[in-house]
Specification:
Layout lengths: L2 H13 L7 E4 L2 E4 L1 E3 L2 E8 L22 E3 L6 E2 L17 E2 L4 E7 L5 E7 L17 H4 L4 E5 L4 H5 L3 H6 L8 H16 L5 E11 L1 H11 L9 E5 L19 H11 L5 H6 L2 H10 L16 H6 L8 E6 L17 H12 L3 H7 L5 H27 L4 E6 L4 H4 L11 H5 L16 H20 L19 E4 L3 E4 L6 H15 L24
Parallel strand pairs: 2-5, 6-7, 9-10, 9-11, 11-12, 12-13, 13-14, 14-15
Antiparallel strand pairs: 1-2, 3-4, 4-8, 8-10, 15-16
Helix pairs in contact: 11-12, 13-17
């Protein structure tokens, strides 16, 4: 080929437009994504209008429409959250954050048609996290034929504040739960638009871990979320007591009173002054003032979750739920330090638990104080929740599957964090090579690869059929009265009974606290427990 021919070809190439990425014509508008092998990726899609200015602390509104083709080739900003402070294994700050953050991302197989859909809700204590963390890369799931959607939702004080002035301006006279309303808006967007991406709007699984798992339970309990999903996956979720909107209960102030008290701490006398604050400053100051975001019992969006599940009024969908053996190994602030001696431990437990002390000490003996103390908090938050939610789904005739993630590896064991909170995530997503900077790195070996392959298979097959299966792996038993579950160690294996006596003890404690009405239930257990209320008929 002559130099002249080569030059002419180069000039022609420069004159041609760049090859376009894949284009989807959805009801929301036309979107151009990008191609990653046989996966199409669409990033930074707005599902609701920016909740800024006067729209701060209002329910999400529809996103503005657009003409032409909108690029969807870069992630949107994370929602505003505190940054800085001592680093942890979870530290992975977003590149950018803004109140304009209600975006979602879609990974879809190129040939998808009526494919199952997973909508993933990130964790972070309702205070941090974002939809495009490297751990949540949707490609491995999409390669199994699933359309994957990851979402942002408002965090911290911007997502969960209740306040008398906010309730007064609401047509329903309620406030709070804005982050949950964002999640519902994202699911509504999925219902309207996901078919254009090859997904089946009638086969949506809502899934999440930690605060994302809590969000899954909120969605199961929330009437406005009915019909928006067909299955649910909750990893390390916690069915803790929730504040009432206007009434002090279970030892907690009303959500409105807590919001008003926060305003005083921030030196603000009106809602207008709160709305005028810089969002990053507001979020950080609220967190430093002790504001803890959580769902509010407002009678419309949420009722007390334990009551909802007891009444069988939660979403009637198959459920996959579980927790990790070492949850509190990386959340040590949620458990007290060991006392001076085993005798001190036993004396405190007997004083706090009364007639339940023998059952408690059988499960959490003084022979290994550190492990018993962390296991107590693990079970009160995560183990009891998994068993309870599975039991309540079974009671309404739905399938429920429970797991215990008990796998570890040298980098985690060296830090004393066997099967720590969130450690299942890279195995579930198939992203063991994409963990946060300070995360104990799983080894790139055959055990890691095989376990991750099985877990990806179980999770994606559950999304497709409502039954978790994996090639070459054991059958996952249905949850039963005996507590059958899947135990993930170096390999998955089915077990007949999950921690005998654990659920019964925790349920008795919560039942008595509910009956008394003056004590909440969360991590205030074991050495931190108040005196157990007297035995109540029907409470064990």
């Amino acid at each position: 080929m002559s130099r002249l021919t080569i030059l002419a070809a180069a000039l022609i190439a420069l004159a041609l437009p760049a090859l376009a990425g894949p284009i989807v014509n959805a009801p929301a508008g036309s979107l151009e994504g990008k191609t990653d092998g046989d996966i199409r990726v669409f990033e930074g899609i707005p599902y609701a209008a920016p909740p800024v200015g006067a729209a701060r602390w209002t329910p999400p509104q529809p996103a503005a429409s657009w003409t032409g083709v909108r690029p969807a080739t870069s992630f949107g900003a994370a929602c505003v959250q505190p940054v800085g402070g001592p680093p942890s294994i979870y530290t992975d700050p977003p590149a950018k954050m803004s109140e304009d953050c209600l975006y979602l991302n879609v990974w879809t197989p190129a040939a998808a048609k009526k494919a199952p859909v997973i909508v993933w809700i990130h964790g972070g204590a309702l205070l941090g996290g974002y939809s495009h963390e490297a751990l949540y890369d949707g490609r491995p799931w999409a390669k199994r034929g699933v359309v994957v959607v990851t979402i942002n939702y408002r965090l911290g004080v911007l997502g969960w504040l209740a306040h008398p002035e906010l309730s007064a301006e609401s047509p329903d006279h309620i406030s709070g739960n804005y982050g949950l309303l964002d999640e519902i808006a994202a699911l509504q967007w999925v219902k309207r638009n996901i078919a254009a991406f090859g997904g089946d709007p009638a086969n949506v699984t809502v899934a999440g871990e930690s605060a994302g798992g809590l969000s899954v339970l909120y969605l199961m309990a929330s009437p406005p979320a009915r019909g928006l999903f067909a299955k649910a996956i909750a990893e390390s979720a916690y069915m803790v007591s929730m504040p009432e909107l206007k009434t002090e209960k279970f030892g907690a102030p009303s959500a409105e009173a807590a919001g008003a008290a926060l305003a005083v701490k921030l030196g603000k006398t009106s809602l207008a002054e709160l709305r005028a604050m810089d969002p990053k400053t507001l979020t950080l100051m609220a967190a430093l003032s002790g504001y803890g975001p959580q769902g509010t019992v407002d009678g419309k969006t949420l009722t007390q979750m334990v009551d909802t599940f007891d009444a069988g009024q939660q979403a009637h969908v198959p459920l996959l739920i579980g927790f990790n053996a070492g949850e509190i190994h990386s959340l040590r602030a949620l458990a007290p330090k060991p006392p001076a001696s085993a005798a001190d431990y036993e004396a405190t437990i007997r004083a706090h638990y009364g007639d339940l002390a023998d059952a408690f000490l059988k499960l959490y003996p003084s022979s290994n104080l550190e492990e018993s103390i962390t296991a107590t908090t693990r079970d009160a938050l995560y183990g009891w929740t998994a068993a309870r939610a599975a039991t309540k789904q079974t009671a309404i005739g739905e399938r429920a599957y429970v797991y215990l993630f008990d796998h570890s590896y040298p980098a985690a064991d060296d830090k004393g964090m066997h099967a720590f909170h969130g450690s299942e995530l890279p195995f579930v997503f198939g992203t063991t090579d994409r963990t946060p900077p300070n995360w104990p790195k799983p080894p790139a070996d055959a055990t890691t690869a095989a376990l991750s392959d099985a877990m990806v298979g179980y999770w994606t097959s559950f999304a497709a059929t409502g039954r978790p299966t994996a090639a070459g792996a054991p059958a996952w038993p249905l949850w039963t009265a005996a507590g059958a579950y899947m135990h993930f160690t170096d390999t998955p294996h089915a077990e007949p009974s999950l921690m005998p006596g654990m659920y019964e003890l925790q349920e008795a404690v919560v039942c008595r606290r509910r009956a008394a009405g003056t004590v909440g239930w969360n991590w205030n257990v074991g050495l931190w427990a108040p005196a157990a209320p007297a035995k109540v008929k029907g409470c064990g």
